Amino acid sequence: MIIQKLPWAGIRIQHENTSIAIDPLFNLPEKFGAPPEPFYPLDEFGPVDAVLITHHHGDHFDPEAIAASYGKDIPVYLPKESVELARESGLQSVQGVSVGESFGIGALKATATYSVDGMGDPQIAWIVEGGGKKIIHCGDTLWHGYWWKIASAYGPFDAACLPVNGAVLEWPGVRPSGQPISLSPEQAVSAAVLLGAGTLVPIHYGIHHPPVYNQTPNLMDRLQGAANDIIKLTILETKGRMAL
């Protein structure tokens, strides 16, 4: 199994002749500011057989880019509560899933499991298996109490792709909480350990657009410090690959 890093929170997984993308993104919403890195058209990463979406927020679900690069008929799987919204985007093969559901995509198997959204919207994490390897992608989840259940039901994992930016939001017209809506570096390390992950692959970091979107300070130093002697840390640049 090969994992390739896509911009922001996305990854592409390939095993044998099957490839899938999770949360592929090309069009970053304006409210996040200028992209912190090049956002390449999705077809530059290669074709996929299906797209898995953790939740419908604009920095994780980019139907325009999905249709442009993969075609409107590409199978797209996302939380069942978001199906109508996704179909309104013009995608023709949208399928809703619930926690615990599994299905095959060629040589790969995908399973939806628990995730908790920082804004209270429907969100799932994706487990993908193939060739005796297993990874989990947790979208932009915040800390929750499901780690032990996930580990018990599906662990251990060869890799855990977890958000690490501990983002604090100040959306216009919304009373700010001052609390992070995604995992902090230290929480990501703890979650990866509880999941029994062989390596932690950081995702969902690099955007800092105050006062609207605020990334936690000293992210990489804190992440490396927390992971030291506890868990392997694999940092992938966009287009970077790792083989499991």
What does this 3D model show about the protein?
The protein is an alpha/beta fold and 244 residues long. The protein contains 5 helices and 16 strands. The strands form 3 sheets. A 7-stranded mixed β-sheet has the order 6-5-4-3-2-1-16. A 7-stranded mixed β-sheet has the order 7-8-9-10-11-13-15, with helices on one face. Strands 12-14 form a two-stranded antiparallel sheet. Strand 4, helix 1 and strand 5 form a beta-alpha-beta unit. Helix 4 runs parallel beside helix 5. The longest helix has 10 residues.
Task: Walk across the major sheet and give the strand order.
Answer: 6-5-4-3-2-1-16
Q: Secondary-structure element sequence?
A: EEEEHEHEEEEEHEEHEEHEE
Give a quick account of the main beta sheet: strands, pairing sense, barrel closure: 7 strands, mixed
* Strands, count: 16
Q: What share of the residues lie within helices?
A: 10-25%
Strand content: 25-35%
Helix count equals: 5
Instruction: Report mean pLDDT, rounded to a whole number.
Output: 97
Structural class: alpha/beta
Task: Give me the Rg, rounded.
Answer: 17 Å
| Poorly predicted regions | none
The shape, in one word, is globular
Distance from N terminus to C terminus (CA atoms, Å) equals 5 Å
